[in-house]
Design a protein that fits this description.
Layout: H1 2-27, E1 45-51, E2 60-70, E3 74-85, E4 90-91, E5 94-99, E6 102-103, E7 109-110, E8 113-114, E9 122-133, E10 136-145, E11 151-163
Antiparallel strand pairs: 1-11, 2-10, 3-9, 3-11, 4-8, 5-6, 5-7, 5-10
Length: 167
């Protein structure tokens, strides 16, 4: 990498970085919250959802959900996060991504909140995954698990479908 960088010089590296950004900009498609952006068959699609206050407060359940239609086989690139708050009790909340009601186990994240001792009352659960999918509509959820007093607040979920052969 160092040889390539030395051979390109500062201007060449900048030009290469700008070209890479242009390629990324042409791939990324903006979407309205909660719905997949329509594109040509087989193209990249995006779905996103965000909430100021998730319905999961002191319980387990779906913090946020969205759907996306895969026009062909490919992969879903999923990113999700939520702000957690518990000022009164100690808790060990968790979050994970579900695709079509099946947990993606590697996406599970656990945290520790120490509201009892006023030490760590606020955490962020951030997780991501990439899964292979067949053509069709897919439901993607950020699932939350928490005890009494833990509030899942600002929550986001984004899904990008990238067409391609499955492994």
């Amino acid at each position: 990498m160092e040889k390539i960088a030395n051979g390109l010089g500062r201007g060449g590296i900048l030009l290469a970085a700008l070209a890479a950004l242009l390629v990324l900009a042409t791939i990324i498609v903006a979407a309205s919250p909660g719905e997949a952006k329509k594109s040509k068959k087989g193209g990249v699609k995006v779905a996103a959802e965000k909430l100021n206050d998730s319905p999961v407060n002191g319980a387990s359940g779906t913090a946020v959900t969205t759907t996306i239609k895969a026009p062909s086989s490919g992969r879903l690139v999923i990113d999700a996060s939520s702000d957690l708050f518990n000022p009164t009790t100690d808790d060990f909340p968790a979050c994970f991504i579900e695709i079509d009601n099946v947990e993606d186990t590697p996406s599970r994240r656990g945290m520790e909140l120490n509201g009892n001792s006023n030490v760590n009352e606020d955490e962020n659960c951030s997780t991501n995954t990439v899964v292979s999918v067949n053509p069709g509509k897919h439901t993607v959820d950020l699932e939350a698990s928490a005890g009494t007093g833990t509030d899942f607040q600002e929550t986001t979920l984004s899904v990008i479908f990238i067409p391609g052969p499955l492994p």
